[in-house]
Amino acid sequence: MATLFERLGGEDAVSKAVELFYRRMLEDDRVSGYFDDIDMDDQVAKQKAFLTMAFGGPNHYSGNDLRKAHERMDGLDDSHVDIVIEHLGGVLQELGADPKDIEEVASIANSVRNDVLNR
Amino acid sequence: MPVFMFDGHPVQAAPDATVLDALLATGIRMPFSCRAGVCQTCMIKVIGGSIPTASQAGLKDTLAHQGYALACRLPAIRGLEVQQPPASTRVAATVLEKRKLAPSIWRLRIRPESSFSCIPGQYLTLWNPHNEGRAYSIANLPDLDGYLELHIHAFENGAVSHWVTSTITTGDTIDISGPAGSCHYVPGNPEQPLILAGMGTGLAPLLAIARDALAQGHAGTIRLLHGTRNAPELYLQDSIREMAGRHAQFRYEGIVHPEIHSEISRRVLAKTSDVNDPRIYLCGGSAFVHNLRKQLFLSGTALSNILADAFLPAATGGKQRDNQPGSTKPSNRESTEAPGS
Question: Min CA distance, B337 vs chain A (Å)?
Fold first, then answer.
């Protein structure tokens, strides 16, 4: 029985998804401001790590890593986490993923909500 | 307050300070330039304590293996012991030629006294007698030409550029270190259209990359766009046109425009959509490079096909690095990883 990560396509899927996801975030005015002063290559590397985790792949984050990473962002709230989940779903749909798997990814992303929001 | 050792002496650091911050705060004249972990001017040797990976990013693996790290990326913590790198990381070079190419642009040709291998498009650091270093791109094919060519924008108060323009003459010996940078030609896709766009002395690495591509038999079109605000700064036009005359696949556009950022960006975006799967090289001030990279990405170009070499202003001592838009000081870099390198 293949794991979620395997079903989604593993590392290959992450590589395809990361730029699609990043583009959506940069084009979304509700969140794009948070990426203004960040080096794109750095950001893509971080997003690859995040997507790997969200797709059920190897997770190298501690709760503390996510807290520290988002600490400095002013005004971050539930709506921003929702937007990330929305774009994750959009990208996976674009890549033809199974709706049940998309739901699972959403719940993994949701599981780190409180760390990201420092709650 | 953490204390670490520098050249055998204890140095007190503010919490969360980097080794560079702490040394400068103590009044130690540690060389530095970009403060962004890119130019490698602040390279230091770690002789005790652990070395975080981030502080070795971009360093040659031989240097990383020997414990070298970037002081601006090294957290100052208890147990860390560092020392200034021995002068052996620098190489002496003889000045062969110094020539003015434009009102503020000088060409320097130098011959290293010992082996200095580099990839066209990389940059080296030039050191003045006050131990201040600045990074300049290698503008030619050193293996073929027998010398290293640099294009230096002269700034009135430029720590190195002023010294170059006012003091150095042919026959002098100067110190260089490096090279560094990953913005260069990568063989393997000889039919891929290449678009090289640069502003000011951003032309330097792009010329090297274009020549390198041609020398390696690149068959796809190579389009070089060079932009400036003022006509006199469109330098080396004649020799680039001559190069275009000799190679059918190489095309050159020298662009002078009051709104040069948007004009050159507009042309790059147009050309990108006109060709199939191009690789784009961008070089110049960071505002121009980052903005165009983002626009290219948003219009569908993969990041792996956008190689950016952004010039960062040299941070003045004691102040936070000012990386504000509009700056075109060619003193330091942010180079994108070339895949396969």
Answer: 8
Cα dihedral sign, B177-B179-B181-B184: positive
Could you tell me if A44 and A22 are in contact, meaning their C-beta atoms sit under 8 angstroms apart?
Answer: yes
d(CA B323, CA B247): 38
For residue B319, give the amino acid letter: K
Which residues are bridge partners to B189 per DSSP?
Answer: none
Q: Is A96 helix (H, G, I), strand (E, B) or coil?
A: coil
For B275-288, the pLDDT digits (tens) are: 999 999 999 998 99
By the 8 A CB rule, do B150 and B110 touch? yes
Predicted model pTM: 0.84
Determine contact: B321 vs chain A, CB below 8 A.
no
How many degrees, rounded to 5, is the angle at CA B118 between CA B84 and CA B44? Answer: 10
The two three-digit tokens of residue B200, written as one number: 């000011």
CB-CB contact of B213 with B194 (8 Å): yes
Between CA B179 and CA B160 the distance in angstroms is 17
Q: How far apart are CA B249 and CA B218, in angstroms?
A: 9
Give the separation between CA B299 and CA B34, rounded to whole angstroms.
Answer: 30
How does pLDDT run across B52-97, given as a tens digit for each residue? 988 998 888 888 888 999 999 999 999 999 998 876 689 999 999 9
B241 exposure class (CB count in 10 Å sphere: 0-12, 13-18, 19+): exposed
Query: C-alpha angle with apex B37: B306 to B143, nearest 5 degrees?
Result: 65
A23: closest CA of chain B, how far (Å): 6
Mutant choice from B183, B293, B297, B332 vs A, greatest count of A C-beta within 10 A: B297
3-state secondary structure at position B90: strand
**Do residues B5 and B15 lie in contact, with contact meaning Cβ atoms separated by under 8 Å?**
no
Handedness of CA B312, B318, B324, B329 (dihedral sign): negative
